[in-house]
Amino acid sequence: RREPLALINLKKKNEETGEEELASRLGHCKAKATRHIFLIRHSQYNLDGRADKDRTLTPLGREQAELTGHRLASLGLKFDQIIHSSMTRATETTEIISKHLPGVKKISTDLLREGAPIEPDPPVSHWKPEAVQYYEDGARIEAAFRNFIHRADAKQEEDSYEIFVCHANVIRYIVCRALQFPPEGWLRMSLNNGSITHLVIRPNGRVALRTLGDTGFMPPEKITRT
């Protein structure tokens, strides 16, 4: 529902000017800018924590976040904002990354919290959440996709560069949805901690995946997937 034709009321079309007016109105609704979406998986965290507040980053996780922040800063891009999951490991990763990107505003959201987006196909034996989780988490993660992953607003004049710090399941689902792949295949991908996934959304709504789970900027001994 973001194509220009979906944004205007065709019933209000002026019969006298006809197609000329329609073309003008469509022009005002067309996106002009490209959005660059950088999806960052949180760094390694304490798996033994019982509550979310106890699942803090490990010393290695903090190193990974520093490396990710340095990598993002080295790109020389003018980042517009950092939107991050409200979970502890994502918030801590964001705080470390943001030190390398001074002045970039940070926004926390519950939409990007980790969860079970959709039952994977083929199924796996090592991970079987309760069926209710797919209904609860799936609706929320789909809402995150619809809210954040779309072409630029028609009022946006310049290309934008946005960072989203969240979780492996959320990123994998978003990648499948953005590329119009069957979302049930999300679990076939694997993402390292602190990795960078780069999506490009053109004004016409076309999406390209430039990098998936990149950690080439980390020394091999610093790379984990836990």
UniProtKB/TrEMBL annotation:
Its main location: mitochondrion. It catalyses: O-phospho-L-threonyl-[protein] + H2O = L-threonyl-[protein] + phosphate; O-phospho-L-seryl-[protein] + H2O = L-seryl-[protein] + phosphate. It is found in: Mitochondrion outer membrane. Gene3D superfamilies: Phosphoglycerate mutase-like. One of its GO terms (biological process) is positive regulation of mitochondrial fission. CDD domains: HP_PGM_like (cd07067). It is an enzyme of class 3 (hydrolase). Keywords: Hydrolase, Membrane, Mitochondrion, Mitochondrion outer membrane, Necrosis. Transmembrane segments: none annotated. Belongs to the phosphoglycerate mutase family. BPG-dependent PGAM subfamily. This is Serine/threonine-protein phosphatase PGAM5, mitochondrial. It comes from Halcyon senegalensis. The gene is Pgam5.
